[in-house]
Specification:
Helices cover 0% and strands 40% of the residues. It is mainly beta. It has a four-stranded antiparallel β-sheet with strand order 2-3-4-8, with no helix packed on it. A three-stranded antiparallel β-sheet has the order 1-10-9, with no helix packed on it. Bound molecules: FE2/S2 (inorganic) cluster.
Length: 116
């Protein structure tokens, strides 16, 4: 599927538990299954550039970074219920499910948003 990368099988994902996938030696993403829906995002927290989002906690369709507990929307990557203008944003990626396979929109190389 052009522009997408195959990350894992749907059955490999556990509800509300992050799955870490390395795109390259220097870039990885986090994938979560929450209430049957699958979300993909950068694994590097934009707050302190720590690659720990896959270890985050799920709360109300948000992921809480386990380092300082910044809260990002699984859908938009925005902090809490705010727009990106009020805080740092976690890049999120489109997900397509083809049969049992999870395909994620291929991110740009190391995309960070330092606007906070
Ligand atoms: S590194 Fe994620 S909240 Fe600080």
């Amino acid at each position: 599927m052009k522009g997408y990368i195959k990350v894992c099988g749907v059955s490999e994902l556990e509800e509300k538990k992050g799955f870490r996938y390395f795109i390259s030696e220097t870039q990885d993403i986090a994938v979560f299954k929450v209430e049957g829906r699958i979300y993909a995002m950068d694994n590097v927290c934009p707050h302190n550039h720590t690659p720990k989002i896959h270890l985050g906690f799920i709360e109300d369709k948000h992921v809480l970074c386990p380092v300082h507990f910044f809260k990002f929307s699984l859908q938009s990557g925005f902090q809490g219920n705010q727009s990106s203008a009020s805080g740092c944003t976690l890049p999120v990626y489109k997900v397509e499910i083809i049969e049992d396979e999870v395909w994620v929109e291929k991110p740009e190389e190391n995309t960070f948003n330092f606007d906070f």
